UniProtKB/TrEMBL annotation:
<protein>
    <submittedName>
        <fullName>Aste57867_3686 protein</fullName>
    </submittedName>
</protein>
<feature type="transmembrane region" description="Helical">
    <location>
        <begin position="377"/>
        <end position="401"/>
    </location>
</feature>
<keyword id="KW-1133">Transmembrane helix</keyword>
<keyword id="KW-0472">Membrane</keyword>
<feature type="transmembrane region" description="Helical">
    <location>
        <begin position="304"/>
        <end position="329"/>
    </location>
</feature>
<feature type="region of interest" description="Disordered">
    <location>
        <begin position="1"/>
        <end position="43"/>
    </location>
</feature>
<feature type="transmembrane region" description="Helical">
    <location>
        <begin position="476"/>
        <end position="498"/>
    </location>
</feature>
<keyword id="KW-0812">Transmembrane</keyword>
<feature type="transmembrane region" description="Helical">
    <location>
        <begin position="47"/>
        <end position="68"/>
    </location>
</feature>
<feature type="transmembrane region" description="Helical">
    <location>
        <begin position="413"/>
        <end position="436"/>
    </location>
</feature>
<feature type="compositionally biased region" description="Low complexity">
    <location>
        <begin position="15"/>
        <end position="25"/>
    </location>
</feature>
């Protein structure tokens, strides 16, 4: 049951949102009673609640501040693939002659590619290695890399003595190392890509710098590469930077297309069990992979501008909350409300809030390529947390539309606890999409689809760099959308059930909107069907024949309360500029405060105002009086924000 005080003193001590003003007749702060009844745990909960509001609002800024420096707009890194137990031996008895013939090869090796291609590989390897040794033949071992993932490459190891093994346990010497993948030529025709490293005693290495991490990896420079036609075996030299593993995605449209590719490398890897026969340098195959987003600086600029606009639109809420928190530890009555809960009536701010989320599906699309380190996994989780707010944002707009539709039960609505619903949905969405083997869920399926051309392994085609043109991959956000919808549904259920558990009823009665002068004049409509605002008739307090709402209700509905700075020492109210006529001045000693839009509060507090904020009305002794049309604040006066006041 709501309290029913009979005096202004008892009325004020029972509210959470009180005025900082005083009169000669009453002391509105009620300090003695409030300080005696406030308990530190409650104060702590309210402070934590306010800080949580700021944290949620700042989540996208924190996520962007982490994702952009992590290279989600552009990134490049070189990795070595060191031989281990996952490497499979295709054959270890093949012999490469000085003329390019391949003898004693296993059936599995011969089945990898077409006979013409296999013969072309032998001649190309012989021509490349003949300069580095004077031997008539080399032993060749064929290894399959990535079989456990369902995609990868074929590594060819050549040595003059014993044939190298695919999963050595001790250091082995190789005279040459080659990697065979698939790619497309300049005419976009499928081909095999052969990259060859031939060891020598004067082998040189060049650093490959990761971006933006800055780590350096030594790689063999100008690695000879050849394209082998998959049907004729025709061999064509190509540039050392020829790329494959191509992928592109445009979740935000073609202007901001994400392009990903890799370049095969031979890396100086200290952890490898292979070393050059003459250089004694540890060797491993690897790739330099990365992505770039078209017009990324434009996207970043728009994102920064949207962030500035959002916090500009919410600056009034932030000021009101900070002013209110100043009295928490002292036990003073303060305005307590949730910024998230008020978004329902702050459509401009809420719209900007949604726009700030638009770039994140593209950033998440980039993050699917990087799961090597814990920070990379954390970035993906943060992006997933933010992206879950997109379907949540759509659901909020659905609520906004539904509550404007006619209802057969006017003024009776289902209550949703928006802040709890939001956090439950976001956390559940992040858990559903980010816990587990993310590489197996989001990276591997991109490359294990049907290839244009591949390697024949056990009657299956093994993908290795290019995919069929008719096997597109959906943007990751589209793939995750069903899980996000489940998360939002869970949050909605919690948000609907919580009022029932807290108050013992499913619906809120909004007839009190018609019994309060301020609400009846400054509420464009009474919500129908469903509502996210934490409002109820229990938030109103009878004061004689009046029905009074708390200061937090004004803030929830998007209104702020200010007073002229001199009003603290003078009871004369001359703080508004009126057009076309001056309203009647109050004759009592109580201070009159001015009601303005929350959007205008930051401007109202400036010493020099770029424009005159509109005054909606005045509150004097809890009584609301609407201001004549055209009433604005005086540019020459200074105003201060108050901790709010109750209004009838």
């Amino acid at each position: 049951m709501p309290p029913t005080p009979t005096t202004p003193d008892s009325f004020q001590s029972a509210t959470r949102g009180g005025s900082t003003t005083t009169s000669k007749r009453t002391v509105l702060r009620g300090r003695s009673s409030s300080r005696g009844t406030k308990k530190p745990p409650r104060v702590g909960r309210r402070i934590v609640g306010h800080m949580w509001e700021f944290t949620v609002l700042g989540t996208f800024v924190i996520t962007a501040a982490v994702a952009y420096p992590a290279g989600m707009l552009e990134r490049r890194e070189t990795t070595a693939v060191v031989s281990d137990s996952t490497w499979q031996t295709v054959g270890a008895n093949c012999i490469l002659s000085g003329h390019g013939d391949l003898a004693n090869c296993s059936k599995a090796e011969l089945a990898l590619v077409a006979p013409l291609v296999w013969a072309a590989l032998g001649h190309t390897l012989a021509n490349a290695t003949s300069v580095a040794h004077n031997r008539t033949s080399l032993n060749l071992t064929t290894c399959l890399v990535g079989a456990s993932r369902g995609y990868g490459a074929v590594v060819l190891l050549l040595a003059p003595g014993d044939a190298p093994t695919c999963a050595p346990t001790k250091m082995e010497s190789v005279a040459a190392m080659a990697m065979l993948e698939t790619a497309v030529n300049d005419s976009s025709e499928p081909s095999y890509l052969l990259s060859i490293y031939v060891d020598s005693d004067n082998a040189t290495w060049t650093p490959r710098i990761d971006f933006p991490a800055g780590a350096a990896t030594s790689v063999a420079p100008l690695l000879p590469k050849f394209l082998v036609a998959d049907d004729t075996g025709h061999v064509t030299p190509t540039k050392s930077t020829h790329a494959n593993w191509l992928y592109s995605s445009s979740p935000l449209g073609s202007r901001y297309t994400l392009s990903y590719s890799c370049i095969s490398e031979v890396v100086a890897a200290p952890a490898s069990f292979y070393q050059g026969l003459w250089s004694n340098q540890p060797l491993a195959v690897g790739w330099t992979c990365g992505h770039v987003i078209a017009h990324s600086m434009e996207l970043l600029t728009w994102h920064i501008l949207l962030a500035v606009l959002l916090y500009g639109a919410l600056l009034g809420d932030i000021i009101t909350t900070v002013v209110g928190m100043q009295g928490l530890w002292g036990g003073d009555p303060v305005v307590t409300y949730g910024i998230q809960a008020g978004f329902e009536r702050r459509l401009v701010a809420f719209g900007i809030f949604g726009l700030t989320r638009v770039p994140f599906p593209l950033l998440q699309e980039a993050s699917r390529f990087y799961f090597r380190s814990t920070p990379d996994v954390a970035v993906f989780g943060m992006l997933s947390f933010v992206n879950c707010s997109i379907p949540l944002f759509a659901m909020h707009w659905l609520v906004i539309v539904v509550q404007r539709c006619p209802s057969i039960w006017p003024c009776r609505v289902l209550r949703i606890v928006n802040p709890i619903m939001n956090i439950v949905a976001l956390v559940v969405g992040m858990c559903l999409t980010s816990i587990g083997d993310n590489r197996a869920r989001y990276f591997d399926p991109m490359w294990s689809r049907t290839p244009l051309v591949g390697f024949r392994i056990h009657d299956l085609v093994f993908p290795s760099g290019i995919l069929a043109r008719n096997s597109p991959t959906n943007p990751l956000f589209v793939t995750l959308l069903p899980q996000y919808v489940v998360a939002v549904s869970v949050g909605l259920c919690v948000g609907l059930v919580l009022p029932r558990l807290q108050h013992g009823r499913w619906v809120a009665d909004l007839h009190f909107f018609q019994q309060n002068a301020f609400l009846s004049q400054h509420t464009p409509f009474v919500p129908s069907h469903v509502m996210g605002l934490p409002l109820s008739h229990t938030d109103c307090i009878p004061l004689g024949t009046k029905l009074v709402v708390r200061a937090s209700t004004l803030a929830l509905l998007g209104y702020a309360v200010v007073e002229a700075e001199e009003a603290k020492v003078s009871t004369t109210n001359a703080s508004i500029q009126v057009m076309p006529k001056q309203p009647k001045q109050p004759t009592t000693g109580a201070t009159t405060v001015l009601v303005i839009s929350m959007y205008d509060l930051p401007v109202a507090l400036l010493p020099i105002k770029p424009y005159r904020p509109r005054v909606l009305g005045t509150i004097h002794d809890y009584t609301y009086t609407p201001a004549p049309r055209g009433t604005t604040l005086d540019r020459t006066k200074r105003y201060v924000s108050t901790k709010g006041t109750c209004v009838s």
